[in-house]
Fold each of these.
Amino acid sequence: MSPEERAFQERVDRNEKIEPKEWMPDGYRKTLIRQIGQHAHSEIVGQLPEGNWITRAPTLERKAILLAKVQDEAGHGLYLYSAAETLGVTRDELTEKLLSGNMKYSSIFNYPTLTWADMGAVGWLVDGAAIMNQVPLQRTSYGPYSRAMIRICKEESFHQRQGYAIMMKMAKGTPEQKEMAQDALNRFWFPALMMFGPSDKDSVHSAQSMAWKIKMNTNDELRQKFVDETVPQAEYLGLTVPDETLSWNEEKGGYDFAEPDWSEFFEVIKGNGPCNEERLGARRDAWEKGAWFREGLTAYADKAAARRANALVAAE
Amino acid sequence: MSPEERAFQERVDRNEKIEPKEWMPDGYRKTLIRQIGQHAHSEIVGQLPEGNWITRAPTLERKAILLAKVQDEAGHGLYLYSAAETLGVTRDELTEKLLSGNMKYSSIFNYPTLTWADMGAVGWLVDGAAIMNQVPLQRTSYGPYSRAMIRICKEESFHQRQGYAIMMKMAKGTPEQKEMAQDALNRFWFPALMMFGPSDKDSVHSAQSMAWKIKMNTNDELRQKFVDETVPQAEYLGLTVPDETLSWNEEKGGYDFAEPDWSEFFEVIKGNGPCNEERLGARRDAWEKGAWFREGLTAYADKAAARRANALVAAE
Amino acid sequence: QPAFFDWLCRMGDNALILGHRLSEWCGHGPVLEEDIALANTALDLIGHTQMWLGLAAEVEDAGRSADDLAYLRDAMKFRNLKLVELPNGDMGVTLMREFLFDAFHFELLTALTHSTSPRVAEIAAKALKEVSYHLERSSDLVIRLGDGTEESHARMQAALERLWPYTGEMFAADAVDDAVAEAGIAPELAALLPRWQQTVDEVLAEATLSKPEQRFDAQKGGKQGRHTEHLGFILAEMQFLQRAYPGASW
Amino acid sequence: QPAFFDWLCRMGDNALILGHRLSEWCGHGPVLEEDIALANTALDLIGHTQMWLGLAAEVEDAGRSADDLAYLRDAMKFRNLKLVELPNGDMGVTLMREFLFDAFHFELLTALTHSTSPRVAEIAAKALKEVSYHLERSSDLVIRLGDGTEESHARMQAALERLWPYTGEMFAADAVDDAVAEAGIAPELAALLPRWQQTVDEVLAEATLSKPEQRFDAQKGGKQGRHTEHLGFILAEMQFLQRAYPGASW
């Protein structure tokens, strides 16, 4: 470790925040760009599964809540891209990497939303798992990232409550609604568990990231915490977690539960998930069809700048 | 009149059919191309207002009937383009003229189909008016046109009955269905009357076309006949024709009725109808998006012909 | 009273259907800021829908709720302008439509803040704040895209030509409009036209766009329930859950 | 019996949903002959739907009709393959999908003419005549467009890549398929695979198209009611009138 690196690590260890213009190891910068970028992409792509139901929301109030939520997600994308930009990468560069498949987004968004109950399940389970990942990141070492996380977590926990409220309505509703709720839980349970990443023993880069406080907990710790919080919520809804092996382990003070099917996880990452093509296709399409729009605004800005410059010259 | 023209007119007067390779006046050929072409275009564009409800047809049987009907219309388009081709114009040339706005289609198809009752009203009133126009044309002087008309009329009268059957179901159905039926009649009555064209006194070319037996009756004669047949059908349905002036005229043995609003007619022809843009836009879009398909088939045909020629050479 | 109800449905349905169209862009916008802005506008409009249709339901006093009105009427009973139900097209069409409608909406709501109906005045005052911002934003984008590249100019001009024949319906008063105007609930629609024209002229001029020569009132009927073929598809999608699960609570 | 019902729904729903997709082309095809042929295929498929769902309704014996099954089930209860509910895309995707499905449909119906259920055998025999022609036509077009221009070749290849991961579901048997196979009602699905592969290989070779290297069975679940996001929109449109006017007669 060089003296600079040592000094850097000591600051991190003292829980000092690292700020954009300060020295940081190259690996720290790169890892952060990847992590924040992927998080930003996930917010953007994450608009799609829920956006899928906005035009079909069953009441005006539900429609308004869902619109607000999807809008928040786009907003989170904005904060996160801004945080990534402080590390010396542009939003357009990150977008190009997303669209070319060189950067990923969270695999959970490659699952379809098939019934209205999925609007509940996504809020409850997906946002729930996201919060579990994000809450500790409020204390991450990189200042802009930490501040973005603080803002985001506040909104996410609101979203999670809204999702749970939808689940409640469905689970306590008509038999068809209850069936939809159970089906949504069945479909989203294991994908939600996958959101914490592979088991610690199979997880690369973890140790360094934890030393840098880019990652605050191990995947397995967070997954356990998620299961422990979520199972009683499912019980309260009167729904059955789709895991026959699930049982309370008095000794460890937590649940024993089945691992997700990691081969499915890797298939989805490889592009074979149910909606990979739709999701990335939709984003590519939006980007390509929006080129004229972005170019138009740029051209106007250039013209306006030139006009101001001319006006200044004329005035002199 | 030249001797050729006189001989031609005498054949027409004797009700002989004129066949493709026989001599005919230039004006006869041109008028026929225009008339048959417009009729063909009307069949093609006429697929759209009914096609609009295929995916929403309320029962499997209604869906099948509607699909079959729209398919028949495309078939009529085919016969008619073929008849026009015997006059020395290609289907592609006619299509280009339609798409560039140089040839028209029946204005009735610029009205929208807004409820399922419109599937009834279009069959009953629009096909009804079309039949009224077409039945006499079975005796038209140009052989291929006459034969096309004979085939078409048979199918059209079947369509009209199906349309009337839908109206009957709607008019005798729930209050909402009856309301839709009445609304459909309200919207299609005057446009259907317009299908016979402006009043005879304002109609150009009529005399020559009638001498040539390209046109067999005057517009006003046909319109009167249509009203006389249709009003009792509306009464049988328990629906009200949207014309307060409608009354039986004992003396002439027919109904007195209000003229349609001819300014609306001319506005629609000018392109200001409710759906002109949608209809022509849909056809242009289909044509443009289908270019690669047509080119692909042509390229394959050329390759296949070349392969056959090579095989022949090799075999020699 | 039936006229007041009908008129309130017009207000609510315009907001609902335009909000629906804008919400279709969610996740598909050309830049992130645009995604957010469109979702935000849609959200405002759904909020207006709740207020207008809520009041309509009260005025009707037949036991129907705002949701019933939104989700259980078929197309013939919808009272929105044809303009707002047209498909989104490209972002040029979407923004030009917003601008043309916002400019009208702004004038209308401004006048409605002086309504003789305190409820109407109150809703209008709330909505006006948001719509002022809608207009500001859509004007600004029309100007920037009109005076942007050759392509963006051409697209904005094409959008304007496409939408122009649908704008006249906003100012075409019928018996319903006359009745609410007479009651002092709403302004004479024709009185809003000069200021709308002025706004449009100014923005188009700055956007280097030409005002179309066609009639601006060729396409009407939406306010009386005679719509384009597009509305039926909007409703089939929007109303699916309420229709498929009658009486369920969400 | 529940397995038989479920299996009949699969047969009917495939025909219904593919018929729906094909019917969307009505009036929008690239040439008139194609418009007619697609409408004709759609019409055949709606006819099959009536027969399969009609029999399903009889077998269920719960007072539901074929129309009830078509119009009053929500997406979770639909049993069609994901392949048939994908959007039409360009005509290349539409035709390639038809070909891939027709080649399977043909083998399946051929085997079903020997079903131990006389009703099934009878329906299969009727449908087979039409489906033989569907396959002939779609094979022919795939060959001509694959070996047409550079563009038509590229489009057909892209269509094939897009659809390929959805084809494996046709041959993936579950408990329902096993039960009807055991009863001799339907063949083992896996037994149909070699002939399907042969047809596909031959046609692709003549069309100068390359068989994709990806897995052909990545996309499954439709037969068990786990669909793509597209099906919900199809049903919202298709079922609108039955949902909006319950109990009406059409």
Amino acid sequence: MADAQDYEKLETSNAQTIAQFAEDERGFVGRLQHRLHLTPSLVPLIVLVLAIIVFGILLGSKFFSPFALTLILQQVAIVGIVGAAQSLVILTAGIDLSVGAIMVLSSVVMGQFTFRYGLPVEVAVACGLLCGSLCGFINGWLVAVMKLPPFIVTLGMWQIILATNFLYSANETIRSQDIATEAPLLQFFGTTLTIGADEAGRGGANFTYGVIFLVALVLALTYVLRETAWGRHVYAVGDDPEAAELSGVRVKRTLISVYMLSGLICAFAGWALIGRIGSVSPTSGQLANIESITAVVIGGISLFGGRGSVLGMLFGALIVGVFTLGLRLLGADAQWTYLLIGLLIIAAVAVDQWIRRVSN
Amino acid sequence: MADAQDYEKLETSNAQTIAQFAEDERGFVGRLQHRLHLTPSLVPLIVLVLAIIVFGILLGSKFFSPFALTLILQQVAIVGIVGAAQSLVILTAGIDLSVGAIMVLSSVVMGQFTFRYGLPVEVAVACGLLCGSLCGFINGWLVAVMKLPPFIVTLGMWQIILATNFLYSANETIRSQDIATEAPLLQFFGTTLTIGADEAGRGGANFTYGVIFLVALVLALTYVLRETAWGRHVYAVGDDPEAAELSGVRVKRTLISVYMLSGLICAFAGWALIGRIGSVSPTSGQLANIESITAVVIGGISLFGGRGSVLGMLFGALIVGVFTLGLRLLGADAQWTYLLIGLLIIAAVAVDQWIRRVSN
Amino acid sequence: ASHSVSTCLITKTDTNPFFVKMREGAAAKAEELGVELKTFAGKIDGDHETQVAAIETCIADGAKGILITASDSSSIVSSVQQARDAGLLVIALDTPLTPIDAADATFATDNFLAGELIGKWAAASLGADAASAKIGLLNLGVSQPTVGVLRNQGFLQGFGIELGNPNKWGDETDPRIVGNDVTAGTEEGGRKAMENLLAKDSEINMVYTINEPSAAGAYEALKSIGRENDVLIVSVDGGCPGVQNVADGVIGATSQQYPLLMASKGIEAIAAWAKDGTKPTFSEGKNFFDTGVALVTDKPAEGIESISVKEGMDKCWG
Amino acid sequence: MEPILKGRNLVKRYGKVTALDSCDFDLMPGEILAVIGDNGAGKSTLIKTISGAVIPDAGSIYIEGKEVKFTSPIQARAHGIETVYQTLAMSPALSIADNMFMGREIKKEGFMGTIFRQLDRKKMETLAREKLTELGLMTIQNINQAVETLSGGQRQGVAVARAAAFGSKVIILDEPTAALGVKESRKVLELIQDVKARGIPIILISHNMPHVFEVADRIHIHRLGKRLCVIDPKDYTMSDAVAFMTGAKEPPSEAIAA
Amino acid sequence: MEPILKGRNLVKRYGKVTALDSCDFDLMPGEILAVIGDNGAGKSTLIKTISGAVIPDAGSIYIEGKEVKFTSPIQARAHGIETVYQTLAMSPALSIADNMFMGREIKKEGFMGTIFRQLDRKKMETLAREKLTELGLMTIQNINQAVETLSGGQRQGVAVARAAAFGSKVIILDEPTAALGVKESRKVLELIQDVKARGIPIILISHNMPHVFEVADRIHIHRLGKRLCVIDPKDYTMSDAVAFMTGAKEPPSEAIAA
Ligand SMILES: Nc1ncnc2c1ncn2[C@@H]1O[C@H](COP(=O)(O)OP(=O)(O)OP(=O)(O)O)[C@@H](O)[C@H]1O
Ligand SMILES: Nc1ncnc2c1ncn2[C@@H]1O[C@H](COP(=O)(O)OP(=O)(O)OP(=O)(O)O)[C@@H](O)[C@H]1O
Ligand SMILES: [Mg+2]
Ligand SMILES: [Mg+2]
């Protein structure tokens, strides 16, 4: 019965002449396309740079000044931090509708623990961060262990956390002045570094600690996602959880850790929020969900999981920030700005898709 | 070279003794499980019936009366109609965040065309329906032809349509009294059929035409999705668009038709909305998105497309309606109600998942 | 105690402290009079359908009366009619219905007057500078809810700016107006809107805000660039943190409203109606019961009646 | 004789990879043409350009001498070209019957069909069962079973049955027996002969040399994105074919000209 | 001799279908055991219960005589059981190297590895390339290519290379050569022999009878969810095996007892 396989045997004696297609030589455009394809976050970056250039030309120094540009950074800081949390979850093919609620509840916990119970502010902050992680853990447990769809889990948790927030805080605001005198640590992320202001202290580049935290967070997450085993597992789980499980990833543990980390980041966002608005207000953050998801999607992260980078999300958030401020400065009124941002969301993604298509 | 295949040849002469596994005999539970597995919409139906029974026991005739039960139907009519549109889109693995905006814009068009331009009300209604379909077409075109992600397309369109709505309507409400005297057709879906009221016209079962339309729509869509080629194509596209394309489905055409139909249904929802609230109000419908998605997901339709039924969505909407009314009648305050509804959303889906798991 | 009389309170939202206090006022009064109270609210400002559903629920529940702050003052009318037809007493709180007689009674503040008071005060405080003021207007939302429009237009009228369409903000042509932006009535929105306007013109020196949280947010934006002392902020509401902010110099002046009063009066009226069928009466010369509005500031301007911050603190809510 | 299907200078690049590199291709009427080649040689890409699933970057395709430009598989199907893709192209959540009739559903007769456009499920199910029985795929218990619950081999059987049932001009099979059992593979080979007997030409991609040499009239050897040569299985041994395919031997010059 | 891996009375139902019906199973140390059977006979289900990917409804599994209960494939891997699934189980968007080292990544040495937990990409890439070269999968140009851009056969090659590189006690291969070319299949068979020479037993599921008869020490014939019999390839012909498998012939009683 062996003779039929002789035709196969013959082959193996053949020397290992390695078959190799000729590399296709291309010009600059080709190499650029290839680069874009390999680094998807380049695409939103290009859109961002183009947007800044266009608004810079249209508006001149009013827009293209250190003051206005760093203002955008400040305005997107909260959305960016929450967007980082959202990115992690979306990379696992989930979605987190409760990010805004977790953020607000955490900030309320920090505030109330300090002012209502008189705890040292450091302890209160730690409790707030713990609270965020706990909310994240519940999300993660329901998604990973109970195998419920993330959308519905976080939709439910959104309502639960928000209602808890209102019930617990009794809708009471803690005023900025009180915080500044009694617990300035809560406003830590609001501290501003100003570079190059005029004598009166106006203009110049303003970096709040919140902005610096955002940038550091995005860089750290980029490193973790690219360079550690945990990061690869996050991508694998988002890509195909069944295949990941079969090839040795602890899918449940990875999912729970992602949701917990997301909750923790949201709690940091809550802290940064106190820095930004000065006060602790239980009604903030209602739009954080939709804004963070917008940033993530414009940033090129696939809602089906496994593809995209946190850096892209940051550019996505900045694109929205640039358009919002740019359009307002151009004199568009609030409703028109709203409409144009809608158009530009679609246009930004269309450009992105177009570039990707060309490079394929 | 043929001899190696002799072992194969031998086989084919063998008579067609058909290999068949023994059918596994099971008891009642087994058959029920199997039934649940085959008809996924049974699961939300069971949750619904249980919820009605529990609230009926807790609240007695206040809840378990024709009046209260039909009231729930009226309260979910709009969400249900929008949910039907949402279901279609979600079955294709998309999502439509613009449903609420399309609904409101269509109702504003119907109202303004009648009152601002003095068009005959039939023409104005037709224009409203056309407007909805057109919005749907734009969504569909961007998704199918431009290949943009549905989430981002409808997010952008949501903002665009809503801003258009505010700009066009100048935020003006058309009053119920004016509509009733000048263009009663706009309130058509508000017409109520009362069965079994007392002499004073109170109590009894109240069915508005809107409710009847909802039921008819759901039945019609169920038929179309199950029994026509188009319906099978919708499922195939949602399941795996590439495979559908390769096996001969006109994916683009199917997608565009789905979004257009969804837009048209939203326009009908806009018409029904006028019937429900009496007036034409440009600020209505802000929550239609999230509520319709909630209904769809509780109804067991997969957000990843291709699985679930419109009937399930209807039960999903009713579950939310029953809980909302039941909890309010039990005297829970609004925040507690939200909190409990959040819990119940998660619980309903957990039960659903549990039943599915057992039946596997 | 078993409550024979049941009432409903339906507010626009139950997260805004204004409505929270209204609910507390109602609850306290209801407790005192032995009336059962159920509260309802829209999920967001402008959430009209939930209010309609709430009215239906109240009817199904057999309530004697409804207190409502309508999200959409004219759209709610048919539902209100339905409730009245079912024998319920309906009282509009804070926001009058259109037409105003669609409700059995209205207990409200005059929001236009509230705006006008701070407008006049601001013009007087700026004195000669008013003619060259640079004004930023921080409104509620793009859907232009009535309350927001009334306060905004009242402020402009009081300040001496010619109005365009009085039912709409944003169509004024006065060059002193730098721009409008929306805040959603929150600190976050207030800060962002203020930043946007500052980027447009950093010389803004007069800011109108829809409520005190957005004023606090605007102040943070100014503080971050060191201009908190050369900009005058005015606001409306009179919540305790807001009045405290007037004391601290964050806000120049605010128009104080009295939600607790509205709510407790409303509960009293329904209790009376349930007892013997008496309907509430109106304030003299008005077609509604005015629960009043007072300008709170420690820098009174000539010819404009105001109360001191201390007095404001005594009457404040939330 | 004019080829029924002809490809000239087909080029397809994926990023850096050139999957098709000026590839030619000929299918004669009524023949079984086998396409063999190493993994990644570009065989699947070649047949995808022919079936409209991939649009080539350059080159032209002719059906019975007339140039055609397919932009979707539906157009190729309208020309009677039916394909079983290596990835099978089925909707996992739908039933076997639904999948077999996807895109060419049968409507009920009478007004239920014309007005209400109702599908004739019974007829489709009967036909589907018939086709599967022909292939001997009888371990499938339920024609309404979702495709995702089938074993890998069962899925492949369904895909082959679909192509055989509907192909009218050309049938393309990309590794149709890869996951099939001995018995089932046999059935597919028989089916290929049946189809050929009906006068319909077949393109068969396979790594199974005995199968290829058993049924093929001509063998197209693909290497590095190109047609290396075309040989007659009667003139060469399997060892020769494998040697050409892997580059161990130079192909004869007359085969290159063929 | 004690079997290294033993299954007794394994049962697995999917809804109405009984995929495993009181199935027994034995793998002896150092042997190559082939599992053959019709499509849908339950072969994949059997090996999934052994590799922890599916939890059986009933029955027990023993490793070296000790009962084990796997609830996840990770546990089986921890016991040195490495599996190539029919569906391959790879993350399409990740690179070849990422996929090969999924779940057992190599960290950098020094504090970058211990504190910052940085992966040693270079080492992983070098190792991955080595393994692929051993299999002769050299048409893969770039070890950082996403798996989704590979041809079907290339993917299979990567999966086999992964199992061969890491299996220490048992290697299970579910149709490892189904999509492979002649040359590549050959390499896999050689690899199987190599692994056996290292003393590691192998379970091979295949529909390719010549391959099975070439490498197997014993052949487990699976039919209708059960082990029908176990035969020695030296005592029977391929025709016999196929006849048993399809029910055309009764298996000899001594084989059933085996
Ligand atoms: N969608 C794609 N994106 C990028 N590269 C691709 C894509 N499809 C195929 N390729 C590449 O093109 C080359 C040819 O692939 P093709 O699938 O045509 O090979 P094949 O001859 O069918 O191989 P096999 O016998 O393994 O199926 C391979 O190197 C593969 O990596
Ligand atoms: N997840 C599942 N859900 C339902 N039924 C399944 C599932 N997996 C397998 N089956 C059924 O179990 C039976 C055995 O399948 P299995 O995949 O084990 O067969 P196999 O012997 O590996 O076949 P092949 O040679 O085609 O791979 C089949 O009838 C199949 O339809
Ligand atoms: Mg191929
Ligand atoms: Mg198998």
